[in-house]
Design brief:
The protein has helices at 2-14, 22-25, 32-49, 51-56, 71-89, 98-121, 123-126, 134-142, 148-159, 162-172, 178-191, 193-203, 210-236, 249-260, 266-296, 305-316, 326-344, 396-405, 408-418, 423-430, 436-441, 444-460, 468-493, 498-508, 513-525, 532-551, 557-565, 572-585, and strands at residues 356-359, 370-373, 385-388. It has 586 residues and is an all-alpha fold. Strands 1-3-2 form a 3-stranded mixed beta sheet, covered by helices on one side. α11 runs antiparallel to α13, α22 (444-460) runs antiparallel to α23 and α23 (468-493) packs across α26 (532-551). Bound molecules: zinc ion (2 copies). One zinc ion is lined by residues 417, 423, 448, 451.
Amino acid sequence: MKKITFVGIVCVALSSCGGKQNSETKAAADMNPQFEKYKSSFIEELWKTYPGWASSQGYHKYDSLLVVPDDASRVKELAFLKANLDSLKIVDLGGLSDNNKTDYYMIENQLKSIEWTINEEKIYQWNPSEYNVSGAFAEILNGNYDSLDVRLHNFYLKMANIPAFYEAAKKNIKNPTIEHTQLAIDQNLGGISVFEKDFVDALSKVNFGENEKKRMEYRANESVKAIRDFANWLKKLDNKTPRSFRLGKDLYAKKFEFDIQSGYTVDQIYEKALTHKNELHQKMFVLADKLWSKYMGKELKPNDTLALIRQVIDKISQKHLKPEEFQKDIERQIPILVDFIKQKDLIYIDPSKPLVVRKEPDYMAGVAGASISAPGPYDKGGNTYYNVGSLSGWNKEKSESYLREYNYYILQILNIHEAIPGHYTQLVYSNQSPSLIKSLFGNSAMIEGWAVYSERMMLENGYGNNEDEMWLMYYKWNLRSTCNTILDYSVHTKEMTKEAAMDLLMNQAFQQKTEAEGKWRRVNVTQVQLCCYFTGYTEIYDFREELKKQMSDKFNLKQFHEKFLSYGSSPVKYIKELMISEIDKK
Ligand code: ZN
Ligand code: ZN
């Protein structure tokens, strides 16, 4: 029975565009060469339309251009989107390889998503923080892809449109939200130093003539004036009916479809997150209860189960490293993770592409924690770095809170998530089926979902020796992504108050106050993004369990992982369809 259902799903998906039914019955002509050609010209057009996006991806041909976001440019943008959606309609999906099929779906989704953002979501009207030029200019100064002379000239040319840019922004903005207005003021004023300081410093390092330098400095001054003027305009804006920062049910559901591209609806995911949260609480209680006397001695147990869990967690969290030991310890742990995976035969790890652990570079300082920096799609030979935060300049209280959060146990789970077999391993696999489209439009739920899935998979296979402490801490960590989803959905579609949000994060997810406050600020200015972790994780985990049942003793975990990652950063629902259709063919 099950098998028939699967085949059904595959047929629907591959012939969803009208007129393609024939591709299932007769062998389709090879459309791949034609589609490859289309993709190259599409990306070239994409960069012409979005020069700022191009620069941020490491494509610098259009560095000197700044698009003025007025009505005329939106008309041009919509025409670009429509023309490409029309081009996609005539592609015969049946003649495409798996790699190109998923590319096709991702291009289509991206185009429709931008169209929707302009026509329906209208973010250009209510989110003033969309208008901020400093980041793109900072990147030109910091990048080392070209000589400083060339970069400064592009910087100068690009500045020409800054006054017009902010004039157009003022015309676009209507009833903005209070939160995004404040964010725009802060970020724009914060970015002024790029023109006032960084640019001036850089000018002192080149041999341009005095007149030329004067011209450049004059333009930088005009830019600073335009940015200040915009911030002041926002401060004084007569905004009697500000839009709510809450996206609302209909827009939220649609944005979830575009950004997450899940096989589940957002309501299904929300229900799953609620159930999962309760399951985690139950499991955590069993462990915390068992560990009570080890950590709390003869102290009386509280009646409230959540309070009991919290007290045990707080005690275990005191086992943590000193900040100066972080990098060394991460360097020590990476080969241990690799050995464990080899010994348990979980997934092949290419030894020729080592991960470089480093102290986080200065321009990233303050973000803290650990993160992966991968080379962009136009920088193929570049290293992949594991950036480790230094906590230098932090006060005692703040760094202690951070160290407890990233305690002895959580730090190991973080290494699994960020590095092996999480983000870094996924990246190595996705580079083996190179697709510029997937590097640019990679699905966040698949990427984050894989990292979150890999944490559980490692523990299931015995990483951490099945210690109760390790599992308890893992559950706490997993609660974070689970509650991110509950929070995001509840705030944007169910009017969740700040008070209720803080209760969820602090009392039900055991987070520190500063962490919870930060999350509240984040959910005020972003929408849907916080759902990607739990959604992707749930889809991958459910899919694995489904396959296990279907294949019974033919199921092989290592093969599952390698096959799953071979499709690159595509949405899980497409990977699932393609994997199942291949199994059915055997
Ligand atoms: Zn401590
Ligand atoms: Zn991640």
